[in-house]
Each structure stands twice: as structure tokens, then as C-alpha cells.
Fold these 4 entries.
Entry 1:
Amino acid sequence: SIIHPREVMKTAILNNAASIVVSHNHPSTNTTPSQEDLEVTERLKQAGEILGIELLDHIIVTPIEKNYISFREKGYM
């Protein structure tokens, strides 16, 4: 399901966060980001820039041990 940046940033604001890392799971075990994953990451980054809350990374995890992808490591952000 698609999240709204407002929901993520609300929690960051209420916790006086200067930066955040977001993550979500892909039960399919495929760590390839969907177009929606890329779009929501960009929206979170933009919202964070406006609010002064840096998005450090977006991580996709799977049920397989040690199977993940970091958007920052892969150059998606």
C-alpha cells in the first residue's frame, strides 16, 4: 500500500527528528524497487527538505535472511 509523506513526517516531527530512515518489506523476496517505491521515496525526500528532516535512506527488506536493498547504496537517492 502507498503511504503519504504526511504520515511519516508527523511521527518524525513529534519525535523532534533531524533525520529519518524508512523501510518496508517485500514479502515476494524480490528487493527490486517498484516505480511507486521510487516515487514515494522522492516525495519523502522533498517533504523532508521542506521540513528540515533529512531522509537518510530507504531500505527494502524481505523474509530471506540478510536480503535487503538500500536506496542510498544503489544510487536511487
Entry 2:
Amino acid sequence: KMTNLKQLGEFGLIERLRSRLNTRSPRVKKGIGDDCAVFSAGANTVQLTSTDALIESIHFDLKTISPIQLGRKAMAVNISDIAAMGGTPYLALISLGLPTSTSTKFIDKLYLGLQTICDSHKIELAGGDTVASPKHLFINVCIVGEACKNRVFYRTGAKPGDQIFVTGNLGDSAMGLKILKAKNKNFGAAKHRNALVKKHLEPIPRIEESSLLARSRLNVTSMIDISDGLTQDLGHLCSKDNLGANLYEDSLPVSEALYNVCLQKKYDPHNWTLQGGEDYELLFTIKPEDVKNLKRLFLKANTFISHIGEITNSPKKITLIRENGSKVSLKTESGFNHFK
């Protein structure tokens, strides 16, 4: 039984990984084993592609995330980008930078995580690259998906008066990360702590909700997935067209877990819902006349939606309307930024 990468070598490693990957997409004509993956595009569709890198000590800490969770998360955050455009993923390429001390057991579990999420979304892992990394592990995924030609959802396109919606709860992932990093664990009841940590380590990309919107006749005018926090990502929807937004504080979705932890810690839960990153929920705008139909559409969904605000014509100005009617200006750069 081989236990380290030196004995296994690059090609031994690739063969070991290939033999464990069994999800196939009918689109992919040639997967692992040649110079390129070969795939065919569907008629009346556009192809979508995105890439995301996760680097140890910046994006994750191996002390707090298991290799299975890491594999799942690396793929989930990429699937979320395809969801943000109204698409369906079908192929992924993965590049791994592995310190030579990495055990094959670790790699097997990492791939088990990748594989389980690929299985559930029918994505074929069709190739990539493995290299030695001097110190830290890194994972880079490139994902390919497709969307109907006339149903791609972009970040631009919202107009003043459009209504702002979000799926799921916000702020849970950021609080989960805070709990993971905290020295003491006095963050409320274990069930609440676990729910928040799980949201951080095992995000669920909102593919089903996105395809529900894509298949509907609703006029979705803009969409993004929330990776850097609500205020910052809403800023992306507003900035190109010089728009602003009003957000209603009492409509921001706060989970029971986040509410309870904030109560105990005397934090304001709305700071977390506005600024917390890595929620991977969908943030989108629709025409006011579609609101009723949207709510009806989501009665069948597994995830609820919240009507959190409205697009305005005040350039780049995002205003929080408090429960008492007072107004607060929000800074759009208050989310996560790698180079700050």
C-alpha cells in the first residue's frame, strides 16, 4: 500500500485519481488521458466558464476543514458561479498543487468530496494538472456549463424600481468561520454553532433555484452569487449602471442560529447579514410586476426567498432603511477583499 507521493509519482497519482472518478457527461467526448478534454456544445445554448482558486492558509485551514469538505467546497463555489448566470454545469478541470508530504489517504478523501458533489450535479471531472507545491496545498477548479441563449443572467441590467431578492439566510457562513477561529467555544447552543459552521464548510450552490428562475418567464434583470457579502455584491449589481439601492433592515433574512449567537454575544445580526462573505446565496433583481409570480414559483422550491429591497437611481448609494424608518448609508467596500 503506497502512502506518499514520492513513491506514487505524478502518473501513478493521476491513474489513482482517474480510477476513482465515475461521473460521465454525455457532452464530454474525451475526458482524462489526452492533451485536452473534448466536449460538444448544445444548440441554442451559450457556454459558461469560470475558475476559482483555493489556497491553504488564505481560503482554508486544514486544522478546521476535513479533506472531504474541502473537495466539496472547492467544487461548490465554482458551481455557484454557474448558478449565478442561470446555467447548468457539466464539466470541470482541476489543478492541484500538493506538498510532497501529502498522504494518499488525504488525496483520496479530497477526491471523494469532489466526486460526491460532481455526482449530485452530473458533472464530469475531465482532466486537470497535478504539481508539487513547496509549502501549501492549492486547488484550482475550472468549470464549464451552459445556459439557454436568451436566459443568461448578468450582473448588469437592473433598472430603478426593480425589486431585490435573495435566497436563503445571510451571515451564517461568516459567523461559522468566526466560531471555527475562536479560541473559546462559548457561542450559544451546540446545535446553533454546528449549523453555522456547516454553512461555512459545506456551502450549497443554488443551482436548483437558479434553474427554477431560468425556466420561468420571470423578467430577472440581474443576478450574482454572494461570495463577498451582501453590501459589496449588491454594489456590483449597481456600479456599472450608476444605480443605488434601498435595503429594508427588517426583511434581511437571519437564521435562528445566527440570531441566537448574536443575542448571546450582543452582536447586531444585521452587520453579519450585510457584510458576511461566502454565503453563496443568489442575489437578484426582478421587475415589480413579477413579484407575485416569483413568490408563487418559490412555494415549490427547497429554499425560501426574501424580498429585501429596491433598486434606486442614486448612483452607487446603498441605503439601509431601519425598522424605525431612519436611514443609514452603507459602504459597498465593506465585504471581503483579497488585496486590502
Entry 3:
Amino acid sequence: MLKRIEEVYQTTVFERDEHKTTKEYRKLSPKMRKAVDSIFKVMDSKPSDFLNTFEKTIREVSIKFRVPEKELMKYFEREMLTI
């Protein structure tokens, strides 16, 4: 059974940006949102390797976007608690 391009696009694009609809994400500053988006982008590009390099990715993103590493970790902890 073949899927139409629109169906494939909708299933992949909506899942990719799903984190942007949460209450915790909307509370973040624009700078933190960019950092979180960057982390999710890395997670999407390497899903199998992401858990092994999560802390390293957090550290790199916090330096790149100049946001506290602790704040990024708190965001992910809050997201896990609300799910």
C-alpha cells in the first residue's frame, strides 16, 4: 500500500514540532526555545545515539546559545513530569 506525499509529510512534520505545543515550552524565553529546538533537532537526526550523548548535547547547546545548562535540564525534567 502506497502513501501519498501529503500523508507522509503530515506524519513526519507534526511529530517533529510536537514539543512546541506543550505548556512548559510556551513558558520559555525565546533564547531557551531556540536552545530546546536545537536539542530536538539533534535528537531527530540521531535518535539511536541520542540517549548516550544527551548530557554532552545539553552542554554543547548551553554554550552555543548561552543559556544555563541547569535550566535546560530543568525544562526536560518538567516535561517528563507533565507527560
Entry 4:
Amino acid sequence: VTAGDRMFWVTEVSPMNVRFTLPQEFIGKIRVGDRVSVSAPSESDKNYPAKIMLLSPVVDPSSGTIEVQARVAEPAGNLRPGMTVNILVKKAQ
């Protein structure tokens, strides 16, 4: 081990936040406070409710998407930091 080597990192598991992107067409259709549902591909029958906490005000010009952050309601079950999950946006009129 030498100075500056990464040996570990600290990961917070509570509250569990998920970060994802949506097409720019969702601008104005979703808001902070709206509910989404989170599920792991390996457990598609289990859905965890989450609440949108942050919507980026900027559209990524290379992908045409906006970044969204939602907080999973406790308990987060088998969800773990770094997992790939599915997001269901319930209110997108």
C-alpha cells in the first residue's frame, strides 16, 4: 500500500437514493414529490415506492435526457448501492 491508494469507500445504504435519466419529453410532466416505483430485474415482482427528490434543470445535449433522483421509501428490501434497477414513472401525462 502506498500513499494515495484507495483501499475502501463508504457507501450509505439508508436512505437509498436512485439516480436515473428520462427523455427530455418528460419536462413539465413530472415534478419533485411525484411517486415512482423501483424494482430489481431479478425481482420484478417486488416494487419499492420512491419519491422524486431532484430534477435537473439542464438537458444533456448529447443524449436529450434529464437527470432525476428519487428516494426509496424504507425499507429498501434487497436493493443495494450500484445495482441496476427498473424505474416505473406512474404519473407522466
